[in-house]
Write a structure and sequence with these properties.
The complex is a heterodimer. Chain A is mainly α. Chain A has eleven helices and no strands. In chain A, helix 6 crosses helix 7 and helix 6 crosses helix 9. Classes of the chains: A mainly alpha, B mainly alpha.
């Protein structure tokens, strides 16, 4: 129990460090972004020299990156992530508008991908038919050789939903590991003994195979979240889906650094959270097994 | 040597030779416009037709293959060297150094690769000359792609450091630097070699992704990524199959690399 607490504390520390370092990076990018020093109000011909001087002095505080960072973090803690340079809207509003679609896309894509992975990997390990195994491996290998953006384009061409493209991008990565884990688990002596004793396949699977492979499968599930998030960029950008991935792509094309860095921090936090959760749950499983 | 090993080898050699001989096979170059044949289907003059700007697709495929196939190994070399420096040194030094280096590596690894890539790409100017865009794209791949290899090399170096022969060398009075360069580094070569070959198909695919998203090599310079961007305008799968040639070529090359790597893995296992 003590070890688990340390593990959770370690992950929490990593998340905190990511927020702080990410915040510093974000603040530096925003501070150094082109046009940061410009203030359109200075172009107003009605302003006199004193007013202009007051405006410049008000902005002078932001010249120091450290003080700017502290202010930036204070604002971020209250939910103010700054404004997008290209879209002219608050980053928070943009993220709030686009998040539901991306979450939905990721959710469906991951469920589809894991369903396909479990189905094929389990049947490959269970049936142990060389032809079937070769075919499944060839299909996943073929998908692995296609760029994610091409799969997104093909989904547009075939009018397939974006979630299918996400599933097909993630599937070959998860299938390889899941298949190897299950094949290895099924070839363990105690499984062979259970089979020889005539135990039903369902019982062997849920009582003897799943507990053995669960920690590694959970780690793989955590990694698959990161892969799926990465896949949202080409899928949303090329399928015309207005989600976070498309927003990141638009921000990259427009060199909208405040928006892009905020999205990257958000994505990093989500992936770290997914990986940490998978690690902690995996540790709990291992502890239970022991 | 089995057919499964020979076939990808021959295919890679053929594709590489054709791309190196691009200036001989397509002397007009990749940028020449044939204004009388815009978006033309394949013909005797243009084996793979022309693109929407009237440029010969066959020439562009050859030159694009050259860029992708020559620069992906260069980026892989850079990333492997960085991985050797960071991972190898961290593993050799051990303790706090190793923990710190691996914490940074893990943070990089947890980031989705494409997100990291487009963020870093956006930091660079986008309106640069085509040649600079090629260099920037592959340099970024090399500079950001070291993390997975660094992890492997760190554990390899750590196991070499604690091996009997290194302990014996240390006990015989061999100094730190000499110990690293003479006894540890040569034993990391197989891992370095494997990481280099693993990185090449990854970088080829990453460049293709960046190119399709418009963040890769700039026009008129061709690369597999920029050539695949043409698929965006396709209305049906079977209407213009010749436009799929760059994709088929890319899949064949990446598959060949995967087959060679899997054979190598089997061999080392």
């Amino acid at each position: 129990m003590h070890g688990l607490r340390w593990k959770i504390a370690g992950h929490a520390l990593a998340l905190l460090a990511t927020v702080l370092v990410g915040g510093l990076l974000s603040a530096t990018m925003v501070r150094l972004a082109p046009g940061f020093d410009a203030d359109e109000r200075e172009l107003d011909p009605h302003l006199n020299a004193q007013s202009l001087q007051a405006l410049r002095e008000a902005r002078h505080h932001d010249d120091n990156i450290i003080s700017f960072y502290v202010d930036y973090m204070k604002r971020a803690a209250h939910g103010d992530l700054g404004n997008s340079l290209a879209l002219g809207q608050p980053v928070r509003t943009l993220l709030r508008q686009r998040l539901p679609l991306t979450v939905q896309l990721l959710g469906i894509g991951l469920v589809l991908s894991w369903s396909l992975t479990s189905m094929l990997a389990l049947s490959a390990a269970w049936l142990r038919l060389p032809t079937y195994d070769t075919m499944a491996t060839a299909i996943s290998g073929m998908l692995l050789c296609l760029p994610a953006a091409v799969l997104a384009l093909l989904s547009v061409l075939w009018n397939a939903p974006g979630a299918i493209a996400i599933a097909l991008i993630v599937f070959p990565h998860t299938y390889r590991y899941a298949r190897n884990l299950l094949v290895k688990a099924y070839s363990r002596p105690h499984i062979l003994a259970a089979r020889a004793k005539g135990l039903r396949e369902a019982r062997i699977l849920f009582w003897h195979v799943v507990p053995v492979v669960m920690p590694q499968m959970l780690a793989l599930a955590g990694v698959s979240v990161s892969m799926a998030i990465g896949a949202t960029i080409p899928v949303e950008a090329l399928c015309g889906l207005p989600g976070i991935g498309q927003l990141a792509w638009q921000a990259a094309l427009a060199r909208d650094l405040p928006l892009l860095v905020n999205i990257t921090i958000l994505v990093t936090l989500v992936t770290l959270l997914a990986n940490s959760s998978a690690d902690v749950i995996g540790s709990m499983f291992r502890r239970q097994e022991a | 040597m089995s057919l499964r090993r020979i076939l990808p080898f021959v295919l890679l050699a053929l594709v590489l030779s054709a791309s190196v001989a691009a200036s001989w096979l397509a002397p007009a170059g990749y940028a020449k416009q044939y204004r009388e044949a815009i978006d033309a289907p394949p013909s005797r003059a243009h084996w793979l037709g022309t693109d929407e700007l009237g440029r010969d697709r066959f020439a562009r495929v050859l030159y694009g293959t050259r860029i992708s196939l020559l620069l992906a190994p260069a980026a892989a070399l850079l990333s492997t060297l960085l991985a050797a420096l960071i991972g190898g040194l961290a593993g050799y030094l051990g303790g706090t150094w190793a923990r710190m280096a691996m914490a940074v590596t893990d943070l990089f690894l947890s980031l989705p690769w494409l997100f990291l890539l487009i963020t870093a790409r956006a930091l660079m100017p986008l309106n640069v000359s085509p040649l600079v865009s090629v260099l920037v794209t592959f340099l970024l791949l090399g500079l950001l792609g070291w993390t997975a290899a660094a992890r492997v090399l760190c554990s390899s170096a750590a196991s070499v450091r604690t091996s009997d022969f290194v302990r014996q060398a240390r006990a015989s009075g061999v100094s730190g630097q000499r110990l690293f360069w003479v006894h540890v580094a040569p034993n990391l070569t197989p891992a370095l070699y494997a990481q280099f070959w693993i990185s090449i198909p990854v970088f080829i695919l990453s460049e293709a992704n960046l190119g399709i998203l418009g963040l890769g090599v700039a026009e008129p310079m061709p690369s597999w990524g920029s050539l695949l961007k043409e698929l965006e305008n396709l209305v049906s799968f079977g209407a213009e199959p010749w436009k799929f040639v760059p994709l088929v070529l890319l899949v064949l090359v990446v598959t060949s690399f995967q087959l060679l790597l899997s054979k190598q893995e089997e061999g080392t296992a």
